[in-house]
Amino acid sequence: MASSDEPRSLRSLYEAAEEKRHALDNAFEATSPAYRADLEAALSLYARARDQIAAVSLFSPNEGVEDISTSDLPYLLLDAHVAELVQKTPNLSPDQRGGVLAQSRSAYERFLATVDGYGLVGSPYSQLLERYRDDPDSFSVVASNDPATRRDAKIANFRAEKQLKEKLETLRRNPRYLEHGDEELVRELYLTQITSAVHSAFQALDSLNRELAILAQAPRPLNP
């Protein structure tokens, strides 16, 4: 294993960050010092990986998704993972929580801008992205306030998420993926993961706006 001051490859940094992220997903003591340390370590690893991606200009606005090698596709998810992790920061005051949500929003925006540049935000998500960019602070996945419309939209969102998860599981169970690492299948898996992350990003931005509205009403401590 590389020492803390030894240069690490992009792949090594990203895999280490992913390992930390998966460990945090299964952690039970979200308020423990160890949890916070692991969270900070994961975010630091992702930041170092992002710096390396920028240094080598891995992603270019002048390229299409077909120009990205299959092994590099997972790096498109970096900021989506960061956005999710940042929101897990524990023990925050309302003002601190608001700052964390702002950081998460910025990471989601970076992710969506990058994948949109490669044409990976297709319908119906392209319409959601247009609405989000028009009014980020008031964005909601369901534009209507009609209860029936909102209920139907929630059901549709749930079904879309379920279908994406089922497709990912089907791809992962395919013998061509398990036994041979078939590049065509691996590429389809990675692209489906990106679509799933796009879906989750809009759900998260909707939830983020609702939480910010609640935080705006939260009482602040009086100055001594």
From TrEMBL:
Q: Which GO terms describe its cellular component?
A: cytosol
Show the InterPro entries listed in the entry: TAP42/TAP46-like_sf (IPR038511), TAP46-like (IPR007304)
Q: Name one GO biological process term.
A: regulation of signal transduction
* Molecular function per GO: protein phosphatase 2A binding
| Protein name per the record | TAP42 component of the Tor signaling pathway
